[in-house]
Amino acid sequence: MEYFELAFFVEKLSVQALDCIENTLRENLQLSTWRNPAEKRSERILSNREVVFERFEYQEKEYSEFVLSIGELYFTKKNFDQQVDDLTHLVHRCFQLSPYLSYATGIYETTYYWTSECSTLSDVKQAALEHFPFLFFRDNANKDHRFVERNGCFYFYQDHLQDIFANPIRSMMLDNHVSEDEAIKRLDISNCHE
Q1: What are the start-end ranges of the E strands in 27-183?
Q2: What is the pLDDT of residues 102-115, one digit of tens each?
Q3: For residue 156, what are the β-bridge partners?
Q4: What percent of the chain lies above the pLDDT cut of 90?
Q5: Which of the chain's ends, N or C, has fewer CB atoms near its CB within 10 Å?
Q6: Which residues have a Cβ under 8 Å from the Cβ of 54 and sit 6 or more positions away?
Q7: Do 51 and 136 belong to one domain?
Q8: How far apart are CA 18 and CA 98, in angstroms?
Q9: What's the rounded Cα separation, in Å, for the pair 24 and 169?
Q10: Within this chain, do residues 30 and 106 fall inside the same structural domain, yes or no?
Q11: For the chain, how far is it from start to end, CA to CA, in angstroms?
Q12: Under 8 Å CB-to-CB from 170, ≥6 apart: which residues?
């Protein structure tokens, strides 16, 4: 299963403060620690999907992070706006739950790869701008024209950094609610007419 990682970054805080943030997020998002089976949840983007909830603290770094790895989250050209709407709603809700959450990133399964060498929040922000397709902020204090306000937070989508769209078969299945065999058949037919 492929996971879309939504990572929230916070300045280095006490263990007690991190525990409080973690408990608040888990309780309000209806998640336990670690692996959560697909079930109905209040946030549409998390509902009926497996979600892995993790907290990372680093001795040698000036930040910690909370990561929601969302299974089976696929983007298609047809569902992109709805998925972004659901993502920004979730991010805004998390920002409301904790004033310590500085910003969030969204990428498929490579958060640690791109941030492992970062030691400060500023380093992470720079890595996010260079490598992550999604970056979310609670406000647009810098008045950066690239950020779009949606559902109470600001996001920046960079389509050239990671191809987030599902392959044609998966897109056909999701957009048309058909089986894999039917999607392949439809794609074969449409390719014959090109």
Answers
A1: 34-36, 51-57, 63-71, 101-108, 134-137, 148-150, 153-157
A2: 899 998 888 888 89
A3: 135
A4: 47
A5: C
A6: 34, 66, 67, 69
A7: yes
A8: 10
A9: 39
A10: yes
A11: 32
A12: 74, 76, 183
8 A C-beta contact, residue 108 and residue 164: yes
Cβ contacts of 82 within 8 Å, gap of 6 or more = none
* Of 91, 53, 49, the residue nearest 72 (C-alpha): 49
Q: Do 84 and 33 belong to one domain? A: yes
Encode pLDDT of 49-105 as tens digits: 999 999 999 999 999 999 999 998 988 888 889 999 999 999 999 999 999 998 999
Q: What are phi and psi of 53, to 5 degrees?
A: -110, 125
What's the angle, vertex CA 60, arms to CA 55 and CA 66, rounded to 5?
15
pLDDT at position 193, please? 47
Q: Which two tokens stand for residue 26?
A: 């888990």
Strands (E), 13-152: 34-36, 51-57, 63-71, 101-108, 134-137, 148-150
Segments forming the whole domain that contains residue 175: 165-194
Q: What average pLDDT score do residues 166-173 get?
A: 60
pLDDT top residue among 163 and 58: 58
Q: Are residues 140 and 174 in the same domain?
A: no
Is the confidence at residue 183, as pLDDT, over 80? no
Helix (H, G, I), strand (E, B) or coil at 108: strand
